[in-house]
Amino acid sequence: MEPAILDQKSVADQCCLQDSKITIPYNSEAKELTISCQVYIPERNRDDLKPLICFSHQDISHKIQVFLSHGNSLTFKIFSDEPKDYDPENTLFFKDTEDYLHPDHFNSLQISLEAKESKILEVTLKVNESLNTQCLNAPEDTFLLLKCCEVHLQSFQYQCFSLKPLEPVDPVQGQICQSHRQAPHNNYSMANFDPEHFSHQVTSVPYIPRKEAETLEGGEAVTGKRKVLVCHDIPKGINEDDICFNNFNRSKGYRFEHWENIDTFVYFSHNRLTVPPAAWITQAHKHGVKILGTLIFEWDDGKRGCKEMLDGVLTYQGKVIDEDLGALFYAEKLCEIAKFFKFDGYLMNFESDIPQEYVEKALQFLEYLKMRLKDEVGSHSELCWYDSVITTDGKVRWQSALRECNKAFFDVCDTFFTDYHWRPNYLDESLLLAGDRSYDIYYGNDIYGRGTYGGGIFNTHVALNEICKRPLSIALFATAYFYENNYESLERSEAQFWRGNQVVTFQLPNKREHLELTKLEDGSYTGVGQWNNIEGDLKIEEDENFGEYCVTSHMWCTRVFELPLDPIKQQLGLGENCLENLEKLEFEVMIKGTPPKCEDLYTIFVQIYDSNGRELADHNSMNSKAQKVATEDWVFHKVVLTKKDLFGTNASRIIITERGKDVEYWAGHFGTRFAKEKLALTFSEGSSETGSTRNIKKILGTRKTPIHLPFSTNFNNSMGDRFYFEGKIIRDKMKFYNYNDCSYVAPTDHGVLKTTASQDFAYYGTSCLKIKGTLGPQEECKIVLHETDFNIPDGEILIETLYAILKGREDLEISVCMQDSSQGHHYLPLIQTEEAKIDNKELTWFSNKQSLSIDSSSIISSLCLLFKNTSSTITNILTYIGQLTLTPPSYTPTTAITNLRYKTTTRPITSPLFSYHKVELEWDHIHTPHSSKTTNTVKFLLWRETQFLGVTTLTKFIDEQVRVEHEAKDQEEGHRGKLKYRVRVKVVVIGEALEKSEPVEVELE
C-alpha cells in the first residue's frame, strides 16, 4: 500500500486538529505499519513525555510503540520486537501470548486524533467492532495512549509496507535494514515455521570441531575434558543483531572476543524461543565454537505455554496440531529450526512450574529432541538443561547441584547447567552422582554476583579456581555485564575481568567531601586529595541534570590535582612493589563549552614523578596537531599512559592539570567546563601465585582455532562512524553497524605491545588492527593472532599483507610468522618501501605479497606477527594492519555478478522538480566455495552513483528511497519534467580471499 497523506492544508498552523479521524484498512500481509504525527511541543512539556507501549498483536508479533524523536515528532510504529525500555506504571502493555488477537477477529485498525477544549491531544487506538472482545485480555477495546498539554498538530500521515517484497528489505534512506521477518520466537511461530520466509537469515559457515583445550590445573597446562559455556545475557540489546545488513542507526554493539577460551556459546533472550542471529552463528563457527538457541518458560504465561508445547496444541485451536506426532510435534519443529538456521542445539530453561503429571512428558520430550538433534544437526549437537524444575513435584526449585530430584533431566540431556547459589561442598555432591559424566555438568557463575560463590564481577576467578579443583565444567552467565553497565570503561573492565588486571579507580570531585580515603558504593575511592586553583578565576557551578562542574573565565585558568601513590598503596593493601606492575593510567573527564559560543579552548596535562622529583612520563593534550576545542555538548575525554610510556618504575605521585579559557573573552564565567573527573590505575596480575589465578583466560585455557584456506581478515569490527573501501573513506560521520561483515581477529597474546581495533583508519570496513608501544634495543615482540592447527596441502601459500607504518620505520622489522608443531618458525618479512602518510583522515597503505614454501606435512600451530627493533635505542611503534590473507595456489578468484536487474515503484509525487522511487535489485552470481569447510563468505558492495549503499551477502537488495531530479515543466499544473540525469547503481563482489571483482552497473530508467 502506498503512503496515504492527510492534506496538510486542512490543518491550521499552531492549532489542534478538530474532530479529524482516519481509518487504516488492516492487511494481514502487512509487515510494518507506521503512523506519524508532526507536532510542535513547547520546551517545558518535553520532559514529561515518556515512551509508551500500548498494544500487541500476537499473530504477526507486532506491537505499537509511542515515542518522541528530536522533541517534535510523535510516531506510532508496529514492530516485531519488544521495546527495550518502558515505564510499567504509565504503560498499557499486553504480553506476547496466544490468546489475544488473530486476523480473523478484525479487519481494520482505527487511529483517532481528537482535540479537546483544554488543548489536550488524545491519541487512541481502536479495533474494528467486529472484534471478539473475549480475545482481548482487557476490559475495553479502546485505549488511551498519550496525553500532553499544548501539543499542536502540524501534519499526519501513515504508511503500510507489504510482507512480500524482495528479501531483505534494505531501506538506506530509512537508515535501518532489518530482518524481513523475526525468527520463530513463540509457540505460534514455531508451529507455523516456514523456511521459505527466512532464506536470507542463514549462515553459510558450518560448525567444524577443534582440538581439546589446555587448562591450568595446579599451575601447569594440561589437556583435559573440561568444557566452558558462555551465556552473554544482554537484556538491553537482545535484538540488536536481528538486523541482517547495514544498520545505519547505531555505531556500537556487544562483541564477544574470547572465542578461543570457550566451547559453547548460548545466545540468550527472554523470548519464548531465541534463534541466534546468523552473524553470531557465523562468528562462533569460524572459531570452532558451538552456538545454542534458548527455549524459555517463565511465570504464569510460561506455565501455560509449556503445557501447550508438551500437549502439542495451540490455545486458539485447542486441539493437537499433528495427530501422528502428538506431543512430539514441537520437538520436530525445534529440530527443523536448528537444522535450517545451522545452530547447534538448545539451552532448555524451564523456569515455571509444570503439573506433576507432565514431568514424565517433559522427560520424553527432551529425550526425543536430543535424539532428533543428533540425527539432523549432527553428533556434535548439544541439548543443555538448566537446573530449575525437579521431578518430585514439577516445581521450580533451584538446587545448584546435581541431585536425585533433578538427575532425570541430566540423564536425558547432553549437559547440565547448574544454578549459581552453590557452595564448594555442592561440587563434591554432584561428582558422586555424575559418575563418568562429571564434565557434562556446567557449574554456573553469575557475573552480576547474585548469590554467586566468590561474589561475581571481578571476583569471578574465585569460583572458577574452586571448580577447577575437580573434574567439572564451567558456565559463565552475563558476560555482557560490562557492556551493559559501564560502556565508557568497557575496555578497562574487560581487561580486569578476563586478564586478571587489578584496577583502582579514584573519583576527583570538584568539592572535597571526604578528608580521608573512602570507598564508594561503586567500588571506586575518593578523599585522596583536592583541586587547587593556581591561575585565573575558576568557579564551581551546578547543572540540575549533570551535577557539579568547574567553569573557566576569559583568561587562561589552571587548576591542579596531586595524587601521592606511596600512602595510597599502603592503605589499599596493594603491596610494596605494586607500582612495578603499573600497566596503565587513565584520566577521564567530561568537557563542554559555555554558550553563546561554545568553541572554548582547553588542555589536559598528566605527569608521573618519582620520589626524587624526576618526571617519569607525561601527556599533554596540546602536543597533538588537533586543537582541543570544546563543543555545545558534554564530550568524554580520556588521557592514557601505559607502562611503555614510563621511564622508570619508581612512581611516587601523579599530577593532573586542567586549563581552559573563554574563546569570546567575555567578562564572567563563559569558558570551558570540566566535570566528573576520574583516575584509573591498572596493575597487571604480576608473577605471584595469587596474581595468576585472577586471570580467567588462563584458568579457562586456550583452544585451537580452526583455520581453513583461504584465510582472510581485514580486522574489521563492522561498527563505527566511518566506512573505508581500499583505504578511502566512502561513508563519513554516519553510523554503521553490520555484524555479518565482521572479520576482526582479536590477538590471543600481544606481548609488550598494545593491540586494538582502531577506528581511526582502516583499509576495508570500520577498523583495522593497531599496534602501538615501544621496543627496547634488539627487543622483539610476537603477537599471536590465532593458536591453531592446520597444514598447507599444496606445500606453498601466498601471503598478502596491507599495512602502514607511521613511526620507527628505519629500525623496525615486521614479519608474518607461522610456527609449526615441532617449534619450527616460518618467517615472511614485510618489504618496506616508504613511510606511510596521513592525508585527510586516510592512510597510505602498502601491499606486500609473497609466497612461502612450507612442508605439507607440517602442522601450523600458531599464526603471528613478529616485531623486532634492530637498533641500539628505544623505538616507538605505531603500525596499522589493514588486511592479511593466506591463499593456496589452487584458489580460483571470484567472478563479477551477471544479469543485474531491477524493478522500481514510484513514491507519491512531492514536487514537479523531483520524485522518489523504491528500487528492488537482483542479480546472479555463481560461487563455488574453495572448500567444504570454508569459513569465509562472499559479499556484495553497492553504490548508487557515488553514495555507498551498504554490504550484503545476498543476491538481492532494496534501495528504499531514490530521489530523481526533473527539469521544471509547467509547475502550476504540477507536471513532472524530463529527467535531469539517469541514476546508476554499481555492484562489486568481494571474494573469499578478499579479492575484488570488476564492477557491474545498471542505469535506472
Automatic annotation (TrEMBL):
GO molecular function: mannosyl-glycoprotein endo-beta-N-acetylglucosaminidase activity
GO cellular component, one term: cytosol
Every Cytosolic endo-beta-N-acetylglucosaminidase TIM barrel domain range: 245-507
Domain of life: Eukaryota
Record Pfam families: Glyco_hydro_85
Entries under Gene3D superfamilies matching the protein: Galactose-binding domain-like (2.60.120.260), Glycosidases (3.20.20.80)
Membrane-spanning ranges: none
Protein name as annotated: Cytosolic endo-beta-N-acetylglucosaminidase TIM barrel domain-containing protein
